[in-house]
Write a structure and sequence with these properties.
Ribosomal Protein S5, domain 2, alpha/beta, single chain, globular, 5-stranded mixed beta sheet
């Protein structure tokens, strides 16, 4: 999976992409030419960069672990994905695993 880069790609993802929510995550996705993802954590909720970076690392691991395999199976369809953390407290990886599993199941249902 590639990194989601460029203002145009990210803006079009938020404007015309679809959204799934499972607290504390929100996932935006859209069909695209390549498979790419990005993660985001709000600066207002986590003013310290150390906390934001830790959550981003956890999100990247979750995306690679739970979402990359289902999406790579759809070789004819590539997607841009943005995962946003909308919670107020620093999560544990075990909590995020459960949320990512449910998001992966919902995403599979929508793609089939």
């Amino acid at each position: 999976m590639n990194k989601l880069k460029g203002k145009e790609n990210i803006a079009s993802l938020f404007e015309s992409g679809k959204r799934l929510s499972e607290y504390p995550l929100r996932l935006y996705y859209k069909k695209a030419d390549e498979l790419a993802f990005g993660v985001s954590v709000g600066k207002r909720r986590f003013p310290l960069a150390v906390d934001r970076n830790k959550i981003k690392r956890l999100l990247r691991v979750g995306v690679k672990k739970h979402l990359s395999k289902p999406l790579e199976n759809y070789e004819c369809h590539h997607f841009h994905i943005m995962v946003m953390f909308i919670g107020n407290a620093t999560p544990k990886m075990s909590e995020l695993d459960v949320v990512f599993k449910t998001l992966a199941i919902e995403l599979k249902k929508l793609l089939i």
